Amino acid sequence: TMAAYIFEDVIKEIEQMIEKEELFLNRLDEETISTRLNSQNRSIKQIVGHMIDSASNNLHRVVHLHYGANPLVFPNYATNGNNDRWIGIQHFQEEDWQTLVQLWKYSNLHFVHVIKHVDAQKLNNKWIAGEGEEVSLQDMIRDYPRHLELHMGEVHALHELR
């Protein structure tokens, strides 16, 4: 598809990250994933949970941006403490680690599948990201690997704490 071509680099980056990081995540022990906290007071389990939320919310944005109003009003999950509410309400801290890792992997693989089939005519459709801030579908997709890398960097930093 046209989108698979347009986002070839994004797709490759996400797929390579999944392949590499799944192996790393699977090797982490219970103490490391549960008790070490980053500057936002999140454990590795909670950071991975947040990345699952990110894949889910971005997937929903892609779908809505194909048929919804332009610019689209989409519920804000990412700021004003909302992402911490999402983490708390879903109790990622208590979830089975293998379930979280697999959900992270397959949420992102499905997001890649959806990216490959985005309607190129919808790429300039926008959603309202904040007060006076609109983000196009294309920019949202392009920014996604950076967001994943940011949070995987947090996971690696917590793993390396001694």
Average pLDDT metric: 95
Rg to the nearest angstrom? 16 Å
Report, as a whole number of angstroms, the end-to-end distance.
47 Å
Low-confidence stretches: none
What does the largest sheet look like?
3 strands, mixed
Number of helical segments with 4 or more residues: 7
Placed side by side, the strands forming the largest sheet appear as 1-2-3
Q: What share of residues is helical?
A: 55-70%
What structural category do the secondary elements indicate?
mainly alpha
Please provide the count of β strands: 3
Instruction: Give the SSE string.
Output: HHHHEHHEEH
Beta strand %: 5-15%
Question: What does the overall shape look like?
Answer: globular
Write structural notes for this entry.
Helix content is 66%, strand content 7%. The chain has 162 residues and is mainly α. Strands 1-2-3 form a 3-stranded mixed beta sheet. The radius of gyration is 16 Å and the shape is globular. The chain starts with a helix and ends with a helix. The mean pLDDT is 95.
